Amino acid sequence: MYTVLVFLLFALGLVLIIKGGDYFVDSAVWIAGVSGIPKFIIGATVVSIATTMPELIVSLMAAVEGKVDIAIGNAIGSVTANTGIILAFSIMLAPFAIRAKDYSLKTFLLIFAVLSLYIFSLTGKLSVIGCIILALIFAIFTYETLKSAKNEQSDERTVISSKKEVKINVIKFIGGCLGIIIGARLLVDNGTVIAQILHVPDSIISVTMIAIGTSLPELITAITAIRKKQGALSAGNIVGANIIDTTLILPVCSLVAGKPLTVPAQALKFDFPVCLIINALIFIPAVMRSKFSRSQGILAFALYIAYVVAIVMFM
């Protein structure tokens, strides 16, 4: 009976995330149209921050409970999953062109953030200086995103037809956000129990089951955005979510824990380097060529699968 309940709650979480993602993208696109802000900016701010809440909540809970492996594995694992599964799969389904100027600075910030996280953790602990640098990168990201929103307002605005339309979209936005967060929580909690029932080690759960579970809001948002031909919203959401995951979650966890986070050997030898390679492979060529190509998606997805297989077999 307990096992059946676990699977039912897992399924409920999936339903909440799917419907929440659908409502969330609809309302986010409406907000972009009404405000005149480009879809890329909406994707990199409002959507990204809301869909990274599951990662933040899970990592904070883990840090408070002293489960540092889960806090770090969830954060860095989510960044790798966002790019290696979600964006890679999205690109394989529907490659699309981009404006390089929309992604150049954010790509640099993302790569620099992952590299900084790796370098300042080589001693086995995420140093205070490392946390400060990551926080500064987050501040720069936020400033530049808001600056872009102010300077690049579009002339095409959605005309508000009635107060009812406003209420409906506000309800869809809030309801979609809540659905994503609650659904992700159900998926992670019950997915972890399912993994334990199947005797999967905790060290693997943190960078796979939990990381993928907390990345599901980005996946659903990406799939919904592509279905609605909003590729810029999808990619903007991923790069924004990755920067937030890398630069905000771990410094906040360190602050909550009241001490430098101990970084597991697996993260230093395997998780951080793979995260850096996959993100560089996807974003740097895209900025140089002003498009995400299907070959990039296939290569990144294959690398992620190889990474997971290697963890299961050798770690």
Automatic annotation (TrEMBL):
<feature type="transmembrane region" description="Helical">
    <location>
        <begin position="166"/>
        <end position="184"/>
    </location>
</feature>
<feature type="transmembrane region" description="Helical">
    <location>
        <begin position="270"/>
        <end position="288"/>
    </location>
</feature>
<dbReference type="GO" id="GO:0005886">
    <property type="term" value="C:plasma membrane"/>
</dbReference>
<dbReference type="InterPro" id="IPR044880">
    <property type="entry name" value="NCX_ion-bd_dom_sf"/>
</dbReference>
<dbReference type="GO" id="GO:0005262">
    <property type="term" value="F:calcium channel activity"/>
</dbReference>
<feature type="transmembrane region" description="Helical">
    <location>
        <begin position="238"/>
        <end position="258"/>
    </location>
</feature>
<feature type="domain" description="Sodium/calcium exchanger membrane region">
    <location>
        <begin position="171"/>
        <end position="312"/>
    </location>
</feature>
<keyword id="KW-0472">Membrane</keyword>
<feature type="transmembrane region" description="Helical">
    <location>
        <begin position="103"/>
        <end position="120"/>
    </location>
</feature>
<feature type="domain" description="Sodium/calcium exchanger membrane region">
    <location>
        <begin position="6"/>
        <end position="143"/>
    </location>
</feature>
<keyword id="KW-0812">Transmembrane</keyword>
<feature type="transmembrane region" description="Helical">
    <location>
        <begin position="70"/>
        <end position="91"/>
    </location>
</feature>
<dbReference type="Pfam" id="PF01699">
    <property type="entry name" value="Na_Ca_ex"/>
</dbReference>
<dbReference type="GO" id="GO:0008273">
    <property type="term" value="F:calcium, potassium:sodium antiporter activity"/>
</dbReference>
<feature type="transmembrane region" description="Helical">
    <location>
        <begin position="204"/>
        <end position="226"/>
    </location>
</feature>
<dbReference type="GO" id="GO:0006874">
    <property type="term" value="P:intracellular calcium ion homeostasis"/>
</dbReference>
<dbReference type="InterPro" id="IPR004481">
    <property type="entry name" value="K/Na/Ca-exchanger"/>
</dbReference>
<protein>
    <submittedName>
        <fullName>Calcium/sodium antiporter</fullName>
    </submittedName>
</protein>
<dbReference type="InterPro" id="IPR004837">
    <property type="entry name" value="NaCa_Exmemb"/>
</dbReference>
<feature type="transmembrane region" description="Helical">
    <location>
        <begin position="297"/>
        <end position="314"/>
    </location>
</feature>
<keyword id="KW-1133">Transmembrane helix</keyword>
